[in-house]
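ZP: hey, is the adenosine-5'-triphosphate complex queued? I don't see it on the tracker
AM: it wasn't, my bad. submitting now with these inputs:
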Amino acid sequence: MANLTIRNLQKGFDGHQIIKGIDLEVKDREFVVFVGPSGCGKSTLLRLIAGLEDVTGGSIELDGRDITQVTPAKRDLAMVFQTYALYPHMTVGKNLSFALDLAGTPKAEVEKKVAEAARILELGPLLERKPKQLSGGQRQRVAIGRAIVRNPKIFLFDEPLSNLDAALRVQTRLELSRLHKELEATMIYVTHDQVEAMTLADKVVVLNGGRVEQVGSPLELYHHPANLFVAGFLGTPKMGFLKGKVSRVDVAGCEVTLEAGATVSLPFTNAEQKVGDAVTLGIRPEHLELAAEGDCQLQVVADVSERLGSDTFCHVRTASGESLTMRIRGDMASQYGEALNLHLDSTHCHLFDAQGQVIRKALQAAA
Ligand SMILES: Nc1ncnc2c1ncn2[C@@H]1O[C@H](COP(=O)(O)OP(=O)(O)OP(=O)(O)O)[C@@H](O)[C@H]1O
Ligand SMILES: [Mg+2]
């Protein structure tokens, strides 16, 4: 079992608060990913869980036991870092067995665990090599193997793939996903890469400035972002944003007049909403479409197109100078400078208030 409960966790360095009161549950066998921009406190939060930093306030519980003050070695957690930190003078086999040998584990058991880790990570043929005779991806697998042999309650990963090239990163990402299922392990994984977060996680924790912005499954966060930050952070290309003002409110929703020159009726409202409120409308690239004849809502001018083969990303600019990206079929593209008429499908729009908080569907708000 491995259930982690974090309550009001805080950490300051030299009087600067870095982790500003975080509450979080990690359930047994969950793959939880901490994601957020550089400097938001992801590594610090992971290091607090590992016991590599002392907390300034709050508590950490593992399976009902308070481990806030417990030394790292006694927490039953194993951390894998971005820099693999292998022992250069030891063979791969010795790197894998070192922690167990140190703990006085019986030889037969050490051999069994090393063989098992080598099997899972396909390191068998490399056991006699030294780290410098390995590729980056192989070194990273050894670093993961060192964590596996310890059979920890929770695996902690801090950007373990960021030193690998793009192709290897994708391959190792898949291996990690498989490993999670094969070991039935509980994993906490830190990354600033939202694609890694979306593809690996059962549960994504979006951090920003030492606070949790939103917690949820990847698709919950993608389809129902709670605020502008999460909406803009998850998804490539990013969600487009258009500024506007509420021009009418009724029980079924509201009408927004955009600075870009269109008026859109939206099925969103909340109790506080009134005419004149500043709002931001969000729309993802896959939900922007070319308007049918006579159906134009938004006139834009095409900027550059990026042709990926499977899709084309058309970057466009509104009359108000705002940028949007439209995803269209790979065999199509817009011409630079071309005038386009776009249709905004109101069922796929998101609406945010002046504080950046989402305004939900009218029916949800009433429920
Ligand atoms: N030992 C330390 N002493 C002082 N400040 C620190 C220390 N460790 C981290 N910080 C500060 O805490 C903030 C969060 O750092 P942290 O390493 O947790 O960020 P991160 O989200 O992991 O960023 P990145 O994506 O760049 O790795 C940063 O502003 C950093 O400068
Ligand atoms: Mg970090």
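AM: back. The first strand starts at residue 4 and ends at 13.
ZP: great, adding it to the tracker
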